[in-house]
Design brief:
By secondary structure, this protein is an alpha/beta fold. The protein contains six helices and seven strands, in the order ββββαβααβαβαα. A seven-stranded mixed beta sheet has the order 1-2-3-5-4-6-7. The radius of gyration is 21 Å and the shape is globular.
Length: 207
């Protein structure tokens, strides 16, 4: 289905994909993506946007203004495919999870970056695209690094604005160091602005 907004052409895509890519004949879910292009840009190469989260759908461009902020620049060179990652937006929702906590965790294990990459690859083939570009923000950046590992043959190029996996120390060590630094920054802040301490405590209590 195609819609037109001022200065934009939006084309909707839906694809049935396996819940578990290791069992392609098993349970199926739907993945939704919205193709965003300028009226004269519908033949430009694809840039697939992988949203942060996990758990957030892709942005919804409205045409005036054409948010998100990077979209105007991207549309100069690409048509952008806004993917609602599995379980979000107009893709099949996760919904209520029956069963034990272990069974629920097993079900949710099919909503990680590796499954999102495999969904994107099925969509790429369904659209007849030889290779495309990807842009990842936050958790989407983790999806991009997974894409580079799992299916580099499907990529022209990869852009990451945040969400790189830890390649050196364990993440617990990184957060431990971050916590110590933030504790020191907070101490120094309240030494300079002691009147803010009660204000922040009141905000925390309100939240």
């Amino acid at each position: 289905m195609t819609h037109r907004l001022p200065g934009l052409v939006l084309t909707e895509h839906e694809l049935r994909v396996p819940l578990d890519h290791a069992r392609p004949d098993g349970e199926q879910i739907t993945v939704f993506a919205r193709e965003v292009a300028e009226p004269d840009g519908r033949d430009k190469p694809f840039l697939v946007y992988l949203q942060g989260g996990p758990g957030f759908e892709a942005p919804r461009p409205t045409g005036s203004p054409r948010g998100p902020g990077w979209l105007d620049r991207a549309l100069k060179d690409y048509r952008v495919l806004m993917l609602d990652q599995r379980g979000t937006g107009r893709s099949s929702p996760v919904g209520e999870l029956p069963g034990t906590p272990a069974e629920q965790a097993e079900y949710l294990s099919h909503f990680r970056a590796d499954s999102i990459v495999r969904d994107a690859e099925l969509l790429r083939r369904a659209l007849g695209v030889e290779r495309w570009s990807v842009l990842g923000q936050s958790f989407g950046g983790l999806c991009v690094t997974s894409y580079l590992s799992l299916a580099p043959e499907g990529l022209r190029e990869a852009f990451i604005t945040g969400g790189l996996p830890v390649l050196g120390p364990r993440v617990d060590d990184v957060y431990r160091a971050t916590y110590a630094r933030m504790l020191d920054r907070n101490r120094r802040y309240y030494e300079r602005f002691p009147e803010d301490r009660e204000r922040v405590r009141a905000l925390v209590a309100q939240l």
